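Table S2 (continued). Query chain:
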Amino acid sequence: MAAHTSQSVATAAGDGVGKTDDARGRGRRTDSGKRGGPGRALATHWYAWAMVAPVVLVLGVIIGWPLVRGVYLSLTDANERNVARTIGANHIEATYEFVGLDNYAAVLGDPVFLQRLVWTVVWTVACVSITFALGLVLANMLNREFRGRAAYRMALILPWAVPGFVSVFAWRFLFNRDNGILNKVLEGGGISAIPWLDDPTWAKLSVVTVNVWLGVPFMMVALLGGLQSIPGELYEAAEMDGASPWQRFRHITLPGLRAVSMTVILLSTIWTFNMFPVIFLLTRGGPGDSTEILVTQAFREAFIASPRDFAGSATWGVLILALLMIFALVYRRSLRKQGEVW
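Corresponding output:
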């Protein structure tokens, strides 16, 4: 009886060991399967890759190739006279040469670059700051219940729906020194006409005003969405504890909007830094060159200067991209230090 029992125990133990080994083996096979290479991932998720491939291809053609081409041109002396071109039935081959980093040294050593950079930074900071402040105020106003709220929302979003060039041309008529509505109103009040687009200082204020008018709707909608995601119970609890409106705004609203605010500030900064239409269509960079920013200077090099300097324009473009990448990296690091994940 004892021998039989011990034999049964040994058999059971052996079965257990065998099952454990089998389980370990299956675990190893499963793990090895999960650690499969790109080929296995492609075979498993081929449908997802097939859906993404056209988008990647289009982005590569639209963004990747021009970027590579621009970087290459910035390392040459390409201009209107030495690029490949066709005149009638004759095809003239390109004769431009590789010059390395000479274009970057020339642009960075030119005082014009520092002037354009300083004004671009001032323009960007002013526009983003004012746009964010106005967007936050309007979002808080529209987040409350009152009669006609939907109509006010539609009216404030309207500038966002109108094409940008149409809005800029409308403002250009408003700023007209002789027949503009703004100066007519001022003259009716006994105030002399203001040279909105003819004086460097007034021209800078004008382009900032127009860009803020165009940017407020996006900022307002984004912040309004953030406000509506904050639980109302937090405000009720704070009000019951005796918190003032300013304290509720400071300790509930602002922290609750932090994630949305960081995103819209980043996007608004990038858009404003490269805001070509407002500057070019409203003032053409004038009067003189007082409102020229980096991106309009790049355009001027490629399409207005004679001969058109394609290498110089590409150099300006690459420098703009580098500045924005540096800003994005610094911004990302500052967010990480504040505990934000981005």
